């Protein structure tokens, strides 16, 4: 029987175990440049089967929060090279989560102080994290976005392609396309945020078009085996909504390449109830996976949101999942894999230090003494 602690392949990625560090925004990369503290943080957690970086903006237009890293300046790419080198030296594997926030941004973060972009000019009832002129950070309401012109969409697809190439050159083992949690690609998928009347709006097929164009551009550039995607069928994060998530997301997974590295599914409300409902009926995650597998999809299936040790063991042993991503537990347990293997006590995460700051609550969580 397959174990959570067994090695596995996710496309081109050969993983030493099936425990994944989920993408976690920490707001500790001023000027969007990864620094030595970030390197230490990822290096400490390199025993994960796979590390997924925090959301990383593909362009300044795609930047939605202060002090999150980017993938679009020479300085940021040099910073990421230090991170990937350190993780590889520690025996780990790491992919970068490629992020365009769309409307979940603020004019102070946008090129020339402009409006954020979105499928439609509908403001997200959400907040983002900005820097005040005095250098203090603060959460602020997101700014009103402008609707992208149809002709602009191809340019953003090209931005994703370029960022994927840059990621490989910065030493990443692959990329995860962030299509979850109410950010740009998810905004296009959901009818609540996408009111377009062109070929990118209206029907499910049209609302998924942009996502498929991004996937096609990235897989053509770096290969499907190094490309993954994150989806969140029912999350209400950042004010997204669709009354029929089941047909929408079954259409999405059925349109993904068979040979992707992995498909990453957030089950329920992100960081919240796993049984969260959007629409009238509970979401059927087994049917979602079947919609991918039945059409020939071979990518590893990764699950996330509120998993504990026993749930993760059962998810893999039952065949419901190939990989399980842990977020908060990796914040406070750099050696989570060893602790889960030994069923050892776990450090509790300190919510007060999740976002912003320095080493406290970031690189100062204790690892268990190495067993001789
Ligand atoms: C990248 C994020 C996501 O996917 O929800 C994020 C952003 C800010 C705070 C927490 C999480």
Structural summary, described in words:
It is a single chain. With 372 residues, this protein is of the alpha/beta class. It is 30% helix and 16% strand. The chain is built from 10 helices and 14 strands. Strands 3-4-5-10-11-12-13-14 form an 8-stranded parallel barrel, surrounded by 4 helices. A two-stranded antiparallel sheet has the order 1-2. The protein has a two-stranded parallel ribbon with strand order 6-9. Helix 5 runs parallel beside helix 6. The longest helix is centred in the middle third of the chain and has 20 residues. The radius of gyration is 19 Å and the shape is globular. The model has no long low-confidence stretch (mean pLDDT 97). The chain binds 2-Phenylacrylic acid (8OZ). 2-Phenylacrylic acid (8OZ) binds next to loops. 2-Phenylacrylic acid binds next to loops.
Mean pLDDT, to the nearest integer, reads: 97
Strand content: 15-25%
The rounded Rg comes to 19 Å
Number of strands: 14
What oligomeric state do these chains adopt?
A: single chain
DSSP helix count? Answer: 10
Low-confidence blocks of residues: none
Ligands and ions found? 2-Phenylacrylic acid
Task: Name the helix and strand elements from N-terminus to C-terminus, one letter apiece.
Answer: EEEHEHEEEEEHEHHEHEHEHEHH
Shape: globular
Main sheet properties: 8 strands, parallel, barrel
Protein name: Alkene reductase
Pfam families: Oxidored_FMN
Domain NADH:flavin oxidoreductase/NADH oxidase N-terminal: 3-346
